[in-house]
Amino acid sequence: MAHPISEQTIREVAKLARLNLTDDEAKLFSSQLGDVLGAIDQLKQLDVESVKPMPHAYDQLNVFRADQEAPGMPVEDALANAPDKDEPFFKVPKVLGDGGGA
Amino acid sequence: MDPTQTTLIELRDAIAAKTTSATEATQAYLDRIEQHNPALNAFREVIGDYALKRAHQVDVGEVTGKLAGVPIAIKDCMCHTEGTTACSSKMLEHYRSPFTATAVARLEAEGAVILGKTNMDEFAMGSSTENSAFGVSKNPWDTARVPGGSSGGSSSAMAADLAAASLGSDTGGSIRQPASITGVVGFKPTYGRISRWGLVAFASSLDQIGTFSHTVADTALLSQVMFGKDPRDSTSAAIDVPDELHDVEGSIQTDGPLRIGIAKQYLQEGANDPAVTAAFDQAMDVYKQAGAEIVEVDLPHTEHGIPCYYIVATAECSSNLARYDGVHYGHRTETPPPAGENPIMHLYCQSRAEGFGAEVKRRIVLGTYALSSGYDEKYYDLALRTRRLIAGDFDTAFQSCDAILCPTTTGPAFKIGEMADDPLAMYMNDIYTVTANLAGIPGISLPGGFAEQDGKPLPVGVQLLGKAFDEKRLLRIARLYERETNHGKQRPII
């Protein structure tokens, strides 16, 4: 494994992904993802300077549709799977104050 | 007749001729599921009452169509208003979709009877169903082995005749690999051929819905029904679907002799199980005997397919799965935030920690890493450039051949637990399948024969890759092989 990633880096990345990891997970991912990135490093031998990135299976620019009114999802359908709600709203814990932002 | 021991088209015709009824057929499949699903865990949820109601509608003539009365299983990542759509994840365990996926709705519009949801690797991430939050599905040929993945419940159900056909999704081989190791036909059409609306997203530029069936003709019929532009999916292709797509007996329509490409990159010394090599050799002979020209093609960037795929797929997955935040739907943690931690941050981070399994977390972390500032050029951008090189290999190859013949997998089904601790080894399994997703081209895995292990016959497949949007020809080329072989007719003893 030529490319270790520190547990610290794993934790920082997990925070960006809004994902709590246990100590065991951070440790395991640090070694496993090191292996995976080691395998991925082989791409660096390629000369891709003049190659255009290919983000999609076929070249497609904007797709337009007519700007017409159409029914949206009814509020009760949108809220039907909500873990917590106060109709017609989704309910979440207090966002501001109490310990500050992210 | 036993409705569970026919092809989809034979069953459809028998229902139309009133030799059997949609209700009889549906009940026969439901009975078979009840008998065998406890051992196979192919279905995560069966919607029997709904299926029987639909079958009745067919029998009284309220519902008609090209698939009238035919029982079909769908993968757990395809939304349906009936039952739950869980993606085999704790995150969505109780999720009830307010809509039905376009692909499934098109089947139902032609009279298909949906039996239920098949098990899968959580969020379609895996090659074995071992990443399902609802237990591993078993391979009907040897229940100590995996049925492949991620669409392993669908392949297991198909091989065990628990449905007349099943749907899967293929992001890096998730239809073709399980089809190969369970001895059924598995088809991934060209990217964009079937709407992704209502397919729970894993990697949006790679995800493609497709089918499992026993025959190429069944595959073609299902494709005919599901293909075509959907205004709800802007990435679905606005390219005409030939009316005769379902007719696999038609002429292959080449200018000269049929040209079958073979690539040395797929046939490295020692890379494949002898049974895989034998299946490939036999397929090559079938085409030679039929008068095809065998053409050597070069796919020089094949070895970069896996690294390229794992960057693109995980980057897209980390972005797609950001929507599971414990707010709008899905699992929400009940633990209170630790002192000093922002309550909403805790809700996001802990809900995701509890709702996702290990492989999904691993891929979210890898994808986030590859997209994060300072690494994005080193990984994501590099992978996208490599992707164009891989697609370019196929463009060049298809100038000299009509289809490429290759293995689907390097060997038969592996044992449950055999690769569980080594994600990298598991990822390497996808070597013959990921490049088709990166390039967007169609691929089909066909039953190619058997390897003998532990005294049991284990299926291996052969794969044909075609040009983008050239499915009609690809399916006819596949049918030519199927006509000359009978590997797909064998059934496991269950």
Summarize the structure in words.
The complex is a heterodimer of chains A (102) and B (494). Chain A has 102 residues and is mainly alpha-helical. Chain A is built from three helices and two strands; from the N terminus they run αααββ. Chain A is flat and about 55 Å long. The relative contact order of chain A is 0.09. In chain B, strands 1-3-2-4-6-5-10-11-9-7-8 form an eleven-stranded mixed β-sheet, sandwiched between helices. In chain B, 36% of the residues lie in helices and 13% in strands. The mean pLDDT of chain B is 96. Chain B contains 15 helices and eleven strands. Chain B has a single domain (1-494), classed as Amidase signature (AS) domain (Amidase signature (AS) enzymes), CATH 3.90.1300.10. The longest helix of chain B has 21 residues, at 377-397. At the A-B interface, α1 and α2 of A face α9, α10, α11, α12 and α13 of B.
Mean of pLDDT of chain A: 88
Largest sheet descriptor of chain B: 11 strands, mixed
What would you say the CATH architecture of chain B is?
Alpha-Beta Complex
The chain-level mean pLDDT of chain B equals 96
The gross shape of chain A turns out to be flat
Report how far apart the termini of chain B are: 19 Å
Oligomer: heterodimer
SSE pattern of chain A, N- to C-terminal:
HHHEE
Q: What is the helix content of chain A?
A: 25-40%
Uncertain regions of chain A: pLDDT < 50 for 5+ in a row? none
How many alpha or pi helices of chain A? 3
The tally of strands of chain A reads 2
Strand arrangement within the widest β-sheet of chain B reads 1-3-2-4-6-5-10-11-9-7-8
